[in-house]
Design goal:
Layout (H helix, E strand, L loop, with lengths): L1 H10 L9 H12 L3 E3 L7 E3 H4 L10 H5 L11 H11 L2 H9 L1 H4 L20 E9 L9 E8 L9 E6 L5 E6 L2 H14 L2 E2 L9 E2 L1
Parallel strand pairs: 3-7
Antiparallel strand pairs: 1-2, 3-4, 4-5, 5-6, 6-8
Length: 209
């Protein structure tokens, strides 16, 4: 029955499952086993982990170049560009909802204009990523979680950094690390683990907030 329900969810446009006891019991088992999540795009619908596994993740296109030491963290692809690639991957029907969420995901930047002779003030380094999954609440359109890696102290290389992962409402997980290198190592672990429920990030050292 569990396999039947998985197939049914994947072949239903809305991820629907019949409300009869046998089907609902199978659904409970599948959700407990983290094989099925609540769908972001259809009320009372579900999505399977195996279908989410086929979705791309979105992060700075030049992340590998940064990790190889070829570019500085400040040269990573802009957050607006990363988010736009995510939006373009969605169906036309979902793109409107994704654009409505843009302001919550893409950080606003302050453009500093120092006075003559004053020290130039740099914004803390910050980059975003979008990965398939869900939290206590559904994710963004297309069943995506969003997250960020951000500098927490003045020293971008050896100071503290923080990683956040969010669903579309108030479900979130956070992880603090103590260097830029640790932060981006943790990001790679998160990207490699998708899709997942936010609560599963506890195994990577995250805590729910």
């Amino acid at each position: 029955m569990d396999q039947t329900v998985l197939d049914m969810i994947e072949h239903s446009p809305a991820g629907a499952v019949p409300h009869t006891p046998a089907y609902q019991d199978a659904l409970v088992r599948l959700r407990a086993a983290h094989q099925v999540y609540v769908a972001a795009d259809h009320k009372n619908g579900f999505v399977t982990v195996r279908s989410l596994s086929a979705l791309p993740s979105f992060y700075a296109q030049n992340l590998e170049a940064f990790l190889a030491g070829k570019v500085e963290v400040s040269a990573l692809e802009s957050e607006a560009s990363i988010y736009s690639r995510y939006v373009k991957s969605l169906s036309a029907a979902l793109q409107v909802g994704a654009e409505e969420r843009r302001a919550a995901v893409v950080a606003k930047r302050t453009h500093h204009r120092p006075k003559q002779g004053a020290e130039v003030v740099q914004d803390p380094a910050h980059t975003i990523f979008l990965i398939a999954g869900a939290g206590p609440n559904p994710g963004l359109p297309g069943n995506y979680l969003y997250g960020s890696v951000q500098q927490s102290t003045a020293d971008a290389v050896s100071g503290d950094w923080t990683l956040h992962v969010h669903d579309r409402e108030d479900g979130a997980a956070v992880c603090e690390v103590h260097s830029q290198a640790e932060a981006f190592e943790k990001l790679q672990e998160v990207l490699a683990s998708a899709p997942f429920l936010i609560s599963e990030l506890a195994s990577l050292g995250f805590r729910m907030t």
